[in-house]
């Protein structure tokens, strides 16, 4: 009798482990994943080496919004940038100020130094199926202005939600 009980206990443990693995795979592939910030282009919001959790599900049910910090998947590497312009909008930067559809947009997430190092750009119209992204450290960021170009919705694989490493920097990124 004890042998049957031990066998049932092993089967229950095996079931629990299999369920845990399946849940982990589902969560990792469809809901949340992590990414490491490489470089200083999002400084001071995100710093080089920080690990962020990003939400993969949010854009399956909705669309990127202005201000979202997104993970962009490109063949050579992933990028972390902020959505600035939405499909069909006109973006222009002049005299260190950002204009969206000819209206000045306040960038409260930037430092004064970053604002003062944003060169002139545009005006340029964003295609209907694309987004315009920039890093928060405008002077050194490779973004829609200078190398990444417009970003399609298919390339945006998630929204950054939380810094999880280093622990001293744990916070929401939005």
Automatic annotation (TrEMBL):
A biological process from GO: signal peptide processing
Membrane-crossing residue ranges in chain numbering: 13-32
Positions of the catalytic residues: 41, 81
InterPro entries given in the database record: LexA/Signal_pep-like_sf (IPR036286), Pept_S26A_signal_pept_1 (IPR000223), Pept_S26A_signal_pept_1_CS (IPR019758), Pept_S26A_signal_pept_1_Lys-AS (IPR019757), Pept_S26A_signal_pept_1_Ser-AS (IPR019756), Peptidase_S26 (IPR019533)
Molecular function in Gene Ontology: serine-type endopeptidase activity; signal peptidase activity
Top-level taxonomic group: Bacteria
Enzyme kind, highest EC tier: hydrolase
Location in the cell: Cell membrane; Membrane
Annotated Pfam families: Peptidase_S26
Record keywords: Cell membrane, Hydrolase, Membrane, Protease, Transmembrane, Transmembrane helix
Substrates-to-products reaction catalysed: Cleavage of hydrophobic, N-terminal signal or leader sequences from secreted and periplasmic proteins
Peptidase S26 domain location: 10-164
Documented EC number(s): 3.4.21.89
GO cellular component, one term: plasma membrane
Membrane topology: Single-pass type II membrane protein
Record family assignment: Belongs to the peptidase S26 family.
Listed name of the protein: Signal peptidase I
Lineage: Bacteria, Bacillati, Bacillota, Bacilli, Bacillales
